Amino acid sequence: xxxxxxxxxxxxxxxxxxxxxxxxxxxxxxxxxxxxxxxxxxxxxxxxxxxxxxxxxxxxxxxxxxxxxxxxxxxxxxxxxxxxxxxxxxxxxxxxxxxxxxxxxxxxxxxxxxxxxxxxxxxxxxxxxxxxxxxxxxxxxxxxxxxxxxxxxxxxxxxxxxxxxxxxxxxxxxxxxxxxxxxxxxxxxxxxxxxxxxxxxxxxxxxxxxxxxxxxxxxxxxxxxxxxxxxxxxxxxxxxxxxxxxxxxxxxxxxxxxxxxxxxxxxxxxxxxxxxxxxxxxxxxxxxxxxxxxxxxxxxxxxxxxxxxxxxxxxxxxxxxxxxxxxxxxxxxxxxxxxxxxxxxxxxxxxxxxxxxxxxxxxxxxxxxxxxxxxxxxxxxxxxxxxxxxxxxxxxxxxxxxxxxxxxxxxxxxxxxxxxxxxxxxxxxxxxxxxxxxxxxxxxxxxxxxxxxxxxxxxxxxxxxxxxxxxxxxxxxxxxxxxxxxxxxxxxxxxxxxxxxxxxxxxxxxxxxxxxxxxxxxxxxxxxxxxxxxxxxxxxxxxxxxxxxxxxxxxxxxxxxxxxxxxxxxxxxxxxxxxxxxxxxxxxxxxxxxxxxxxxxxxxxxxxxxxxxxxxxxxxxxxxxxxxxxxxxxxxxxxxxxxxxxxxxxxxxxxxxxxxxxxxxxxxxxxxxxxxxxxxxxxxxxxxxxxxxxxxxxxxxxxxxxxxxxxxxxxxxxxxxxxxxxxxxxxxxxxxxxxxxxxxxxxxxxxxxxxxxxxxxxxxxxxxxxxxxxxxxxxxxxxxxxxxxxxxxxxxxxxxxxxxxxxxxxxxxxxxx
Length: 817
Known about the structure:
Blueprint: E1 8-11, E2 45-47, H1 50-53, E3 56-59, H2 60-70, H3 78-116, H4 123-133, H5 152-155, E4 161-165, H6 169-176, E5 180-182, H7 183-188, H8 203-220, E6 232-239, E7 245-251, E8 256-257, E9 265-269, E10 277-282, E11 285-291, E12 305-311, E13 315-319, H9 329-344, E14 348-353, E15 356-361, E16 366-370, E17 376-379, E18 384-388, E19 395-401, E20 404-407, H10 408-424, E21 438-442, H11 448-465, E22 472-477, H12 481-485, H13 487-493, E23 498-502, H14 505-515, H15 532-547, E24 555-558, H16 567-573, H17 576-579, E25 584-587, H18 590-602, H19 605-614, H20 616-621, H21 623-630, H22 645-669, E26 674-677, E27 683-686, H23 688-703, H24 709-726, H25 743-753, H26 764-788, H27 795-798, E28 804-807
Helix pairs in contact: 2-9, 3-11, 9-10, 10-11, 11-13, 14-23, 15-21, 22-23, 22-24, 22-25, 22-26, 23-25, 25-26
C-alpha cells in the first residue's frame, strides 16, 4: 500500500447463504464462520526457529513484545516460551476444535427435535432428549471444592467486583485503584442525592451529602445511646495500658460518645489535637474517616471530616473478552501490555486534572496505627486483579500453526500467566496476590468437558513456565445453558483450581434464546428475567456453591448492574443479591463499587451462607425442581398471537436501537464497552453480552414470523437515524445514514439476519471481521492523505487511475466448521 498510488477500498460483501430462506436485501451478507477478515494488507509473521517451535508462526510485533518486554525478569527464555506454546497448541488445538464440533452437533440435534416438536416441549420427552444426546452429563461422584492458596478478597471477605476492559489503560488503572472510594463524591455526584449536581461545587449540596453519609455511618457504626454521627464535633483517640486505644467522640451537646461496638475501631493516624484518620471495620470491610479542618471540605464539617473513604472494589476483572475490542495482533499487544504493566505495578496514565498534567499510577498500600495494641494495620490500596481470557470459540491469526489460526484462549493463558510471574516472583512495585496465585476467569464454557479441558490447559501452561501445580486458578462463568444444567459436574472438573462461579445472566439470556431457537418465538425481552428459568438459574448457582463447599475457598458471584447512571435504584435493589447468598456482585464503575460496598455492611454474607449450609438437606431437595425450571423454555404464549402490534414494534425498536448503538462504537471506534443510550435515552452499560441478547431476540422473532424482514429493515433504518442523532458530535463517529453501506451497517444486518446461523449466537466473529475492515479502510485513508500532498514533481503520477484494494469480509471457514 505504501508504494502505491492513491488507494480505494471496497468492502465487498459476498453472498454465501446457508439456509434456503433468502431475501433480496440480504444478498450483500455473508454467514461468518471464520474469525478474521481476509485482506490484502500483508501481516508480518515471524517464523520461530524450527528447532524451538516446529510449525509455529507469530506476528513479528507480538513476538518482539513477548521476547523483549514480557519475559525478561521471569526466568523464562523466549525459546522456552515459544517451544512450550507450540507443544501445547499441537496437542490441544485439535481438541479445542473437537469441543466446538460437539457444540454444533448438540445444537443441530436440538434444532431438529424442536422442528419436529414445536412449541413448549413435553418435560419428560425433552429431558430424555437432553440425557440421550449427552447434553446432560452423568452425575459427578461426591466431591468438595478443594482450591488452596486463594487470597482473602476471594475466599473470605465479601465485597464488590469491578469488570473493566484491559485494553483501556486509563479505565484499568482506575479499576485497580477502586479499592478505596470517596463516599461523599459518590453521594454528591449521583442521583443517590436528588437535585442539581451539575456545575461548580454547591455547599448546600455538599452539606446534604454529609447528611446522607451520617445516616449511613449510623447504620454501619452506631454510637452509644441516642447519639448520631451528625452530633459529632471532634474525633480523638485515648490510649490505654498495653498500647490499645479507644475512640472518643465529642458531641455538640458537650458530652462524649463511643462506638456501640468498640471492636469496630480498627486503627488511626494520630494528630493534634484530634486524630487525622480513623479506621472503622465491619464484616471484613473498612471505612476511613479523614480529618482536616484546614481542608475546604473539612472546614465545613463540625468534626473537621474532609472525606469518608470506603473500602470498595475488593477485586477487579481485567477483561480481554466481552468488554474489550481486540481483533488483531496490534490490539492484543495493547491488552497484554496493560496486563503486564498491572502485574509489574508500573502501569500509569498521563492525565490533565485541574489544568495540570498529572500521572495516574497504581496506588500503594495504606497503613494505620493499630487500635488493638502495639503495631500497625496495613490494607491493600488496590483491588485484587483477575484476568478474563477469551472463550474456546475465539481464534487468532496473530499466532499460526502452519497455515491455521490457533485458539486465542490458549495464547491468552500463556501470556497471562507469564505476565503474572512478575508479581509472583516479587518483580512488581506492588503486590497483587499475597498467596502466590494467578486468577483467570474463563467465559463461555459449555459443560464439564470444556471445564476439564481448561484445567488441563492450565496444568500444561504451569509446566511449560515452571510454575507450581494449581498456581493458575479458574473462575467459571455460569453463562451458558449447558453449564447451568451441569454446574456440579463443571465444578468437579475444576475443583482444585476453582475460585468463583458467577451468574453472567446477560450472556446466559442470549444462550437461552439461541439454544431453543427452533422451539418457537421468545417472550418480550423485558419478560425473560421473570420466566422460571431465570430464578432457578440464580438460585441453583448459589446452592451449588454452598453445597460443594466453595464458601471459604472462593466466591459465589452475581451479575452486572447495567444502569451506571441510576445509582439510587442500585442502592435500593442490589442488596438483594447478597441476601440470596452471593459473596460478590459486578458493578460498572468505581463509584458504583463504593455505593454497593454499603450493602456488604448491611448484610453479613457469612451469616447468610452459614444459614444456607445449615439447611443442606433443604438445598439438596430442591435440585430436581431447579433442573426442571432451567429446562423450561421462555416461549411466548400462543406463539405471540396475543401481543399487540404496538408491543411487538416497541420491543423491536428497543432491540434494534441498542444493537446499532453498540455496533457503531465497536466496529467504528474500537470501543468494546461503553454507556449507550437506549430508545428512551437512558444510559445503559452495553457489551457483547447485551448485543447477543438483542441480535438473537430479533433473529428469533424473524424466524418465527412475529416480525418480517421488511419490518425489521425499516426499523433498523429508522433506528439508525436515532443512533446517529444520539452520537452527534461524537469524535470519530461514522453515521449510518443515509448511505447504509459502511462496515458498521453490514455488521448489524449480519447479526440480525444471520443470527440464527451464527454458532451459539456469539457476536465476536462478526464484530471482529467488520472491525478489521474498518481499520483497514482507515489505514488506506491515511495513505491517501499522504499521496494527496505534493511531494515535489509527483502531480502527474497522482492523476493516474487508482487501483482497487479489495477487502472481503468473507474469511475461510472456521477450522471446526
